[in-house]
Every structure is written in structure tokens, then in C-alpha cells.
Automatic annotation (TrEMBL):
Family classification: Belongs to the XseB family.
Coarse class of the protein's main subcellular location: cytoplasm
Record gene name: xseB
Species classification: Bacteria, Bacillati, Bacillota, Bacilli, Lactobacillales
Organism: Ruoffia halotolerans
Protein name: Exodeoxyribonuclease 7 small subunit
GO molecular function, a single term: exodeoxyribonuclease VII activity
GO biological process: DNA catabolic process
GO cellular component entries: cytosol; exodeoxyribonuclease VII complex
Catalytic activity as recorded in UniProt: Exonucleolytic cleavage in either 5'- to 3'- or 3'- to 5'-direction to yield nucleoside 5'-phosphates
The protein's role, per its UniProt record: Bidirectionally degrades single-stranded DNA into large acid-insoluble oligonucleotides, which are then degraded further into small acid-soluble oligonucleotides.
Amino acid sequence: MAKINQPENFEEALQELEQIVSQLEKGDLPLEKALESFQRGVELSQYCQKSLTDAESTVAKMMTDKGDVELDREVMND
């Protein structure tokens, strides 16, 4: 199986993930194609989650470096 390229950015990954979800929800893909799409969707989901986690860490670091209020992680997770 050929390696699929990583998305260029979060927005591109999210857009592709949304397209995959839409295709899978229709339920008309052949089994093999559905499994490939599902696998790609998992990869994109992990990429998006990592991007969000990295962004959250960057914001938290910037806030603490400037001596601003400590971020409430519960609020950020909502």
C-alpha cells in the first residue's frame, strides 16, 4: 500500500476528514475502499488531535512566559 502524504496543515486535514466521514456515512463504498477510507480518517484524526494539543501547549507556554494567568485546562477542553 502506498504511503499517503501528510496534510499541509490542520485545516486541510480537517477538510479531508470531513469528506471521508461524509462518504462513510453514505454507506455505499465497497468494503475495501471503506476500510482504506476509515484508516485514512484515523490518521487524519490523530494529526488533527496532535495539532490541537501542540497549539494548546504553545498558547499555555506563551501565557506563562508573559506572567499572565494560568490557563484552566478544563475551560480549554470545552
